[in-house]
Amino acid sequence: MSQPDTMLSKKRDPLRLPKVALALFVTLLFLFPIIWMVFVSLKPESQPASSPLEWFLPPYTFVNYIDIIGGSDIFLWVWNSFIIGIITTALTLVLTSLAAFALSKMKFRYRRALFVFFIPGLMVPGEAMIIPLYEIIGALNLLDTYSGLILPMIAAPLGVIILKSFFDGVPNEVIESAQIDGCSDIRLFWNIVLPLAKPALAAIGILTFIGSWNNFLWPYLAIISESLYTLPVGIPMYNSNYSESYILPMTVNALASLPVIIAFLLFEKQIVKGISFTGIKG
């Protein structure tokens, strides 16, 4: 047998077709709820389906979308979620990177002991801190404000741990050489260490924004004014008015899903790299 035939036989995978078929099946399985949601949102409100197959059959209409846009505050909910998510992500990146840099590259007493305090932050569920958090924010008169929604979310011990591990990989020789040349700690952090941590910062930023966008419990408790509703709070409130109907609630969910789908299509590579970088599964 010639060498090209040998190389070709090594590269040929006898299970390639079943693997592709399985991948397509799993893809369709995950896409089916989105496809069903879109078809249901296009059905006329006055024509309910009597069988599951009828959800996918004509007639179709865009009147539901017009009614939702004109009769709900969905764009305000999207705007609130976006502003809160952006500010929360920016403040989280600033605080976690500074804390990780101090714990990794600055020498002071009890540095290692201080780092240990970040680890229990991963073990305590957020629901266990809701009552004391509510009392603290209430005592500061920050309930029903943007600040009250943002500030409790910027404490991210996972981000500190990830960035510290990343900063530990930066050679100390580079840090010492910069210090000998008269580089201050701020310039050392901003010009040398931080540019090397772009993959870690992207991972933390993506996970923080997604967590803020999907956060329901804390905004639900901390918001009183409808003008501050975020998407996770506004959609259930709107859907409760149509508990007997499928069409309009599905339409508002379809509209609310558009920003997330567009963001995923634009930042697909960064999201996948971020999740694989942090080792988060499931």
From TrEMBL:
<feature type="transmembrane region" description="Helical">
    <location>
        <begin position="146"/>
        <end position="167"/>
    </location>
</feature>
<feature type="transmembrane region" description="Helical">
    <location>
        <begin position="113"/>
        <end position="134"/>
    </location>
</feature>
<keyword id="KW-0812">Transmembrane</keyword>
<feature type="transmembrane region" description="Helical">
    <location>
        <begin position="246"/>
        <end position="267"/>
    </location>
</feature>
<feature type="transmembrane region" description="Helical">
    <location>
        <begin position="188"/>
        <end position="210"/>
    </location>
</feature>
<dbReference type="InterPro" id="IPR035906">
    <property type="entry name" value="MetI-like_sf"/>
</dbReference>
<keyword id="KW-1133">Transmembrane helix</keyword>
<dbReference type="Pfam" id="PF00528">
    <property type="entry name" value="BPD_transp_1"/>
</dbReference>
<feature type="transmembrane region" description="Helical">
    <location>
        <begin position="74"/>
        <end position="101"/>
    </location>
</feature>
<protein>
    <submittedName>
        <fullName>Carbohydrate ABC transporter permease</fullName>
    </submittedName>
</protein>
<keyword id="KW-0813">Transport</keyword>
<feature type="transmembrane region" description="Helical">
    <location>
        <begin position="20"/>
        <end position="42"/>
    </location>
</feature>
<keyword id="KW-0472">Membrane</keyword>
<feature type="domain" description="ABC transmembrane type-1">
    <location>
        <begin position="78"/>
        <end position="267"/>
    </location>
</feature>
<keyword id="KW-1003">Cell membrane</keyword>
<comment type="similarity">
    <text>Belongs to the binding-protein-dependent transport system permease family.</text>
</comment>
<dbReference type="InterPro" id="IPR000515">
    <property type="entry name" value="MetI-like"/>
</dbReference>
